[in-house]
Amino acid sequence: MEQIDVIMSDGGPGTPPNQPRTPIPPLDDEDDDEIEDDEDDDEEEVDEDEDEDESQDGMQGLSASARNIIRAVPDLDSLYGQRDLQKDAICWTLSSAKPGNGVDQIRDSSQETYWQSDGGQPHFLQVVFSRRVAVSHVCLYLDYNLDESYTPKKVCVETGMTLHDLQTVSVVELQEPVGWCIIPLDAPPDPLDEDIVEEQQPIRTHLVQVSVLTMHQNGRDTHVRQVKLFGPKREHQLQQNTLQPRIGDKPNFTTVTLSQFSTIR
């Protein structure tokens, strides 16, 4: 047999025969600068990534704090002096309901009965008034201990003159509520009004729609045990005094033109 000798070149171990070793040229100052620049760019990219992560964490914290969470209360004593608008409504409509769990059950002032939906989401309740009424609060009585996955978790309140011009007024979240959930309704500021009004202004509307967007534990249908709407009482008193003045009362004119007719000479 012929013997094949493998000869290693001077290029060092592992260099194939007849392949001279290529010497590595020394680094110039320009190459050193390029490497340093690359390292600086890498450090800047890492800093930018850290800043982006911090900004995202801050946005997540802000969104969590900005959520409008409503806590349930055992009674409606905080609304003392407000007027119950239940008698002013001419129509109550539900998106769907099981037999025996409809409109009558959410208006009977009993916390043992409830409205149970029976259809696709979102579930909603509509209250229609014969005239424009000032509405300041929407109150829902819910009981997570009894209803569990049927309990609303995210609720949206819309108002408008008709079904075609509804505008979202408030979107709130509820966390396992047991009691009354009071949702305040604030009217948007009038751009033509130069006076700054700090107190809450009720919304004047013909229609109020309360929509249940999600339920606890990803439930499908919902239970709402009571629904009440409240408005300011002074409006009702003012209208009664205007429409039915008592004998002996003097008209309260505010303009100079009409004030001359406030007394008979």
Description:
- By secondary structure, this protein is an alpha+beta fold.
- It is built from five helices and twelve strands.
- The longest helix is centred in the first third of the chain and has 38 residues, at 29-66.
- The protein is elongated.
Which whole number gives the mean pLDDT? Answer: 77
Helix content: 10-25%
Count of β-strands:
12
Query: What is the overall silhouette?
Result: elongated
Category from helices, strands and their pairing? alpha+beta
Strand order of the largest sheet: 1-8-7-10-5-3
Any low-confidence stretches, pLDDT <50, length ≥5? 1-20, 54-65
Strand content: 25-35%
Major β-sheet profile: 6 strands, mixed
Distance between the termini: 148 Å
Please state the CA-atom Rg, rounded to the nearest Å. Answer: 36 Å
Order of helices and strands: HEEEHEEEHEEEEEEHH
The tally of helices reads 5
Q: Layout of SSEs?
A:
Elements (H helix, E strand, L loop, with lengths): L28 H38 L2 E2 L12 E2 L4 E6 L8 H4 L8 E2 L6 E13 L1 E7 H4 L4 E9 L6 E8 L3 E7 L18 E13 L7 E2 L1 E6 L1 H11 L12 H4 L6
Parallel strand pairs: 1-8
Antiparallel strand pairs: 2-12, 3-5, 4-11, 5-10, 6-9, 6-12, 7-8, 7-10
Summary tags:
265 residues; alpha+beta; 5 helices; four-stranded antiparallel β-sheet; disordered N terminus; elongated; six-stranded mixed β-sheet; 12 strands
